[in-house]
Amino acid sequence: MRARILAASAFSALLLAAAPARGQQRVYAITPQIVFLPQDGVALEAATGHVAWRMNRFDGRVLTDGRGLLIYSYLAGINDLLHFHEYRVCRVHSANGKRIWCMIVAHLDDLALSSSGDLLFLRQQHTLEIRASASGSRLASFNLGGFDDPEVLALPGDGVAVFSSSMRRSRLLTIFYRDQAAQARMRIFDHPLHAFHGPGPGVLWYAPAAGQFVSIADGGQPAAYGGAATASFPRAVTGGAGFLIERQQRDAWDLAGGLYAGRTWNRTLGERAAMYLAGGAALLLSARTEKADGKGGMGPAAAAVGTQVRSIALADGRERFRVSLPVQLDVALLDADPAPSPNAALLGPQAIVLLDGRTGAIRWWRDYARDQLAALTAPAVLVWDNGELVALARANGDVLWRVHFRLVGHS
Questions:
Q1: Which residue from 263, 243, 240, 223 is spatially nearest to 157, judged by alpha carbons?
Q2: Which of 49, 291, 320, 383 could staple 370 via S-S, CB 3.0–4.6 A?
């Protein structure tokens, strides 16, 4: 039987003007000025919408730090006879799309980028490799024979966690690569664990049976934090610097948070809130409701009439600002880098609002609906609008450009 080789997953797409799109794809802000759309194989200048560079499109994984580092992977070939899958992993220049390095990896199951961006973690079945992101060269490898389909999660401080859990047992291997040497520690728990984690480094470990977070010294969260037991399953978000946890305690909501390298704090919320993290700050969005009799409250007769926006300092839980907006806002994008002037873009069914991330002041407001936020760049807020990618100027919310996308071979 002859091996069947597939070209890089669904290659050969074009960027076409005035053509309908099928669904919405992830948009990556690979620098403050350039966004990348892998399923169309194109990088756009955020200020103008002009094509910065093109490549063959793919459906795979993209890793970026938002400051110019861009690594991607995709399925490059399948050998039917040997049941062999080959993946291509590449790093490219964000300015022109030219390859810095590429390699073929067999049976790539997972990959992650370290907190500094200097290390790349790749899992191939029962092996974990640590590679230098600058050159792709291998620095260390570990056998994962005791794990059953584990996750690979980046930790603060250029660490990585290899984690698997079942109803009876959990395995956790933490590895830190420093000074050209790897330090590894294995832990086995006789109960299931749940890992709360976001796209970046940072993990919170939760034991559902006990209703508590588990204190793990080098496992992502502060060693001193375990948290009080709670009957309801909590919600948690993690970022590169710290975390937030929301748990229901009788008629109120308990909010806990902190920096990975600092102390934790607690405060009480009157209502549930959508939680977002960027740098050392958190943004909370909670619905302001009103009953049919005109009085505020919750319940089946209550309707959302606005949104309360609060900014919390992760270091100590201090409220940085609080504003009430007379419109429903459900989703937020925050500037990852707080300098020089951070913003928060908020989206709801009928409006898009740009807030000053330091003071909560409204920078601009647009009374029209868009499908979803796509990216927050230095010159513009990017949103999807019925298959169009639209750029709204940071300065005033005016439309800078709009582009239609179509994947070749799809109507």
A1: 240
A2: 383
Instruction: Tell me the two tokens of residue 210.
Output: 């006990």
Could you read off the pLDDT tens digit of each residue along the chain, which spans 411 residues? 333 223 222 222 223 222 333 457 899 999 999 999 999 999 999 999 999 999 999 999 999 999 999 999 999 988 777 677 899 999 999 999 999 999 999 889 999 999 899 999 999 988 999 999 999 999 999 999 888 889 999 998 889 999 999 988 999 999 999 888 899 999 999 999 999 988 778 888 888 888 888 766 555 554 444 455 556 788 999 988 889 999 887 778 889 998 887 788 998 888 889 999 987 889 999 987 765 555 555 445 556 679 999 999 999 999 999 999 999 999 999 887 655 567 899 999 889 999 998 899 999 999 877 778 999 999 999 999 888 899 999 999 999 999 987 543 333
Partner residues linked to 57 by β-bridges: none
- Location of structure tokens 């590169």: 240
Q: Which residues contact 319 (CB under 8 A, 6 or more apart)?
A: 310, 311, 312, 313
